[in-house]
Amino acid sequence: MLSAVTRQMCLQYINAYLQKMGNSDRTRYNKYGRLRGLLTHAGAAALLTDKDKPRYSSEDPVCLEVDELEKFWQVCPNHKRLLYTIFLMCGFRVKELQTLRWVDIDFVKGKILVQPRPEYRFKPKKHHCRSVPVNDGLLAELRSAKTLAKYPLVFHTKKGGRLTHLWEDTNKLFAKAKLPLEKGHPHCFRATFCTTLFRSKEWDLPSIMRVMGHLDSDTTLRYMVPLRDDDLRKRMVEVKFAVATMNVA
Question: Is the pLDDT of residue 232 over 90?
C-alpha cells in the first residue's frame, strides 16, 4: 500500500537499486521525475524533494552502428522486430510508440501521424504534431500486421493495454547481445534514426527537424556528433594543412 512507502524506500529505489540495474544518471533522473509525479498525485509529495534529484552531466547522443544493429537483431525475438524497426526507421519517442494506433497510420499516403491521442492521455511534445514518411517495405509489414489486429493500439499487452516496460526490455536485449548498456534504451534508436539521415547526405536540416519533431536547429544538430573515430580519421587524412616541412637530421 502507498501508506507503507517511506522516504528511505524511495531513495533506495532512485539510487542503490537503479544503479545496480545499470541505469545511467540521466535515466535515474527521469525515473525520479515519474516517481515524484506519482507521489504528488497521491498526496505524498513530501517523500521526495528537489534535492533528491540524481545529478547528471549533459552528454552527446549515442547511436547504434551497423555492426551493433546486426548483433541486436540476432537476439531480438520475432514478435518484437516490428516494434524496434519502427523505432529505428521512424525515430519515435517512447510515448509516441506506446500510444501508436492503427488510425494514426495513413496507408494511402505512406506516413504515420504523431497527433493527440486523448484516450491514452497523450499529447505530442510541446504540442508539436507531425507526420513521418514510411518506406514501402515497412508499410507492407504494417499492412500485414493490421490484418491480425484485435485492438486499437499497434503494440500492446495481451489485454490490449499500453506497453510499460520498453526501457527495461531494451536493456535486457542489449545485455543479451553483449552491447554497451549505455546504448540500451529506446531513445538510442531515435538518435540512430536522426544520425542515419544526416549521414545519408540526402536530407537537409529543415526536413530532419520536421520528422524529428524539433522546433529549433540546435537540438537536431546534436545528433551529428555520433560519428565513428575511423570516419573522422579518414576525413582528417584528406585535409591538407599548410605546415612547415620537418627536417630530419
Answer: no
